[in-house]
Design a protein that fits this description.
Number of strands: 18
Radius of gyration: 28 Å
Structural class: mainly beta
Largest sheet: 14 strands, antiparallel
Number of helices: 1
Strand content: over 45%
Order of helices and strands: HEEEEEEEEEEEEEEEEEE
Length: about 290
């Protein structure tokens, strides 16, 4: 009864602001076999005012009013703001809420996020002891292709540093080669890891390309190599296949050809193409 009073009260408050600016949707799921039964239903009501959208999402199952969330999205000057609050209708009780602000200036993007949880909905392992509430602050500065993200937490004992992540993505020093990396530092462990990856490292002209990822931690170094065929896309005789690579010995073992195609351009917008599959088994080209 209290659950429905909360829901009706919230809807009444929204309707009092103006019925004409409401929209919404309903989604339901049910199965027919072995017997007809209702699984869940989603009701979304969106109120729009002064450029802000305020959605309400309710989820019902065949046994209970399961979840309720309210959101808001709009702008405050040059800052784009989003917010969301989640509630447990079965109690009823407040679970968590978060607010995010994004400020963009030229190519610089600054993001600030605050996330609050109430007990007993605090994420497992967030604090050494279970507090009455838990706060997480995230600050991120991005200047493509670089990004820096810092996280601070508060377990009702004061705000402390939690983690720092520095990344760069898809730097292109030459040709089609791209380089990405990630550095992670935390309060608990200090240096956590450093990852460096390269994609489309071509070994011979339009032949074999490698995607290489190297991850360093305090305990180990992990190397991942993914070879692939990198034939020209504009050829009229493309081959389809895989590269066999011995990861333990870092040795190219062979190439498996699964098929080929013959493509003839007739005009700028028409062509004739014949494809032939050689699988299963394929045609294997072995090293000597």
């Amino acid at each position: 009864m209290r659950t429905w009073m909360v829901l009706v009260g919230a809807l009444s408050m929204l309707f009092s602001l103006g019925l004409a600016q409401f929209s919404g949707s309903w989604e339901g799921n049910m199965h027919l076999l072995p017997s007809v039964a209702f699984d869940y239903g989603l009701i979304e009501i969106v109120y729009t005012v002064a450029g802000w959208k305020v959605p309400s999402t309710s989820k019902f199952t065949n046994t209970a009013f399961e979840t309720q969330s309210f959101e808001a999205a709009g702008t405050l000057g040059a800052i784009a703001v989003t917010a969301k609050g989640n509630f447990d209708p079965t109690a009823p009780a407040y679970k968590d809420a978060q607010a995010t602000g994004v400020f963009s200036f030229a190519d610089l993007l600054i993001t600030t996020r605050v996330h609050h949880w109430a007990a007993p909905y605090i994420p497992a392992g967030a604090c050494e002891q279970t507090p009455s509430s838990y706060l997480e602050y995230t600050f991120q500065i991005a200047y493509d292709p670089f990004a820096l993200k810092a996280t601070f937490v508060d377990c009702c004992t004061g705000t402390t540093f939690e983690e720092l992540i520095v990344t760069f993505s898809e730097l292109s020093p030459c040709c089609d080669l791209t380089v990405s990396g990630e550095f992670v530092f935390s309060k608990a462990n200090g240096f956590e890891s450093f990852m460096l990856s390269m994609k489309k490292l071509t070994l011979c002209p339009a032949c074999i390309a490698l995607d290489i990822s190297v991850t360093f931690t305090t305990d180990e170094k992990a190397v991942s190599i993914t070879p692939k065929l990198d034939l020209p896309v504009d050829t009229c005789f493309p081959l389809y296949g895989d590269v066999d690579f011995d990861i333990d010995r870092y040795l190219l073992d062979g190439i498996t050809i699964h098929g080929f195609a013959i493509r003839c351009e007739i005009t700028d917008c028409s062509y004739v193409e014949l494809k032939t599959s050689l699988t299963p088994g394929g045609v294997r080209v072995r090293r000597r």
